[in-house]
Design goal:
Helix content of chain A: 40-55%
Structural class of chain A: alpha/beta
Largest interface: A-B, 53 and 53 residues
Oligomer: homodimer
Amino acid sequence: MSVTIYDVAREAGVSMATVSRVVNGNPNVKPATRKKVLEVIERLGYRPNAVARGLASKKTTTVGVIIPDIANAFYAELARGIEDIANMYKYNIILCNSDKQPKKELTLIETLLEKQVDGLLFMGPRVTDEHLDLFRTASVPVVLATTIDPGCQLPSVNIDQRQAAYDATRLLLNHGHTRIAFLGGPLEEFAGLSRFQGYRQALEDAGVPFREELVQIADYRYETALKRMAHFLTLPERPTAVFATSDEMAVAAIHAYQDAGFRVPEDVEVIGFDNIRLASMVRPTLTTVAQPMYDIGAVSMRLLTKYMHNEKVTDSLVFLPHTIEIRGSTRAESKTAVATR
Amino acid sequence: MSVTIYDVAREAGVSMATVSRVVNGNPNVKPATRKKVLEVIERLGYRPNAVARGLASKKTTTVGVIIPDIANAFYAELARGIEDIANMYKYNIILCNSDKQPKKELTLIETLLEKQVDGLLFMGPRVTDEHLDLFRTASVPVVLATTIDPGCQLPSVNIDQRQAAYDATRLLLNHGHTRIAFLGGPLEEFAGLSRFQGYRQALEDAGVPFREELVQIADYRYETALKRMAHFLTLPERPTAVFATSDEMAVAAIHAYQDAGFRVPEDVEVIGFDNIRLASMVRPTLTTVAQPMYDIGAVSMRLLTKYMHNEKVTDSLVFLPHTIEIRGSTRAESKTAVATR
DNA sequence: TTGAAAGCGCTAACAA
DNA sequence: TTGTTAGCGCTTTCAA
């Protein structure tokens, strides 16, 4: 029923190959012929079938993207970076939410591979051997974003999570705090563990004893963090500062303290992580470790295009710089005291 | 190089058709044969090629989704609803950002159609004749979400924008306000205009004169809204309440007033729109018109599956209910005074 | 229950 | 510069 390349060829009095050439911008076509074909295409309303093209050429110009949760501001921003660059290179993306469930991740990878994506962009809490095995069966490049596999075999784009957490903790230490609460994500996850390690290292380097009771684990969300904060507030020796590894959790920390009658940043300082829009839309505004979310997405997609086009890649492990965005939830003096080592 | 259905057939000593049957769960296969084929599939690591399948069957089990901006919390939540339901029905989604640019929207539709998506889910500020013409050339169903075409020909999922704005304005009117500022989105856009109309209607019904100077248009974002708020604050007769048609803008309104020395909700009341997570993470928490964002996405995708599967559709224009979430940016008495007509 | 065979619409040698 | 002709890997009648 729909118009095919064959119809166009017949109507224009040329061969399928010629039509294919003009459709694909092949220069080896006489201008007059091109013009004639173009006219017929227009007249018939011919629309190339990308599936047939994909089968014949073994390229689909679509890449698979596996992301934990697109409704999460952090990942949404990342996804935007991915899509923009994909678009720039004429790729479309098949977007899949994994909810960080390994089973679902594996199924998704399988599905995307069946759909013959030209590349895979994977975001997930952990890259296990099962993931690696599956990736190995893929004949297309895979790039990780915001994670890294244990053996560092796969190309990936990240920030230095450990260092970022170290810097954040250091800022608080520089302000004289010795009871710094750590409100982090699951330690089984790559980022969760790295940040915890950065926090501990900073304490150790500063000669401040690590205390178990100053650590609480949540799922990066406001509601959960609010509950975890209750623990800190019942402590005989209450923390005087909080390092939360997401902005939502940091806001929860602020509210928990405020509700208990404390002022932020006068009585307690709070620093978050990510720098999502929320951070600048709350009062006090949130001091936070800024991840270049959009760029992580953009760079990882760019990296993937390089692999897909067989371009030379100098470093497959890229670490983008993070910064500490000083705002209202920490005291002003901090501006001169950002830790860098 | 990669294993094909033919390899499996040869290895299992059956025909391609039989392999195809077991892969697709066709019951007309002797259990013993099925078992043998399954074994070979496993052993060879056969992975069905969905592109070839798509060409042969004319079904790709992927749908195209055109969304203004996935980095926007409202659309991100919607997208999640879409993806979840798509997934439930075994579809994948190709996600495209349009930034509300008509040109880009049209190109995207064209591209998705070329990719032979089984259906299209479109979100955009306006559905023009050009859109309609393009949709008409599509041999697959199209569903609109958060918009509606002028002729109401295309199926769509929405809330009653006009009524929602009416209700919000009414709440403020019920609190005795006569100078209610309207901080809205572009009037050229479907939602922008509908909400403005609802606002005006509510004023009119209450016998409160409409005043041009109480209207400001922004792009739904915090930063822009903050600038627009300056206008209201310089007015000789300052508005005593603000109806902002996005939560980010409502938060900006609150901050603008707070920075000018006013208290919310004591001195001025503010109501937002959407009910994104931000609304409950700011202090005061935000009273807002709650759109069932996830459900709009989910229902529109479900509707699309019905069309794709040729199921009977009773109503192609669905309006999901909205509510007003009473929180801290309006005065408590309001709880008994929600407008409903 | 199984197989043979004709496409699906296009690309990509290869030849002319 | 153009055309011919194999496929690409699968589904789907139609027969058997």
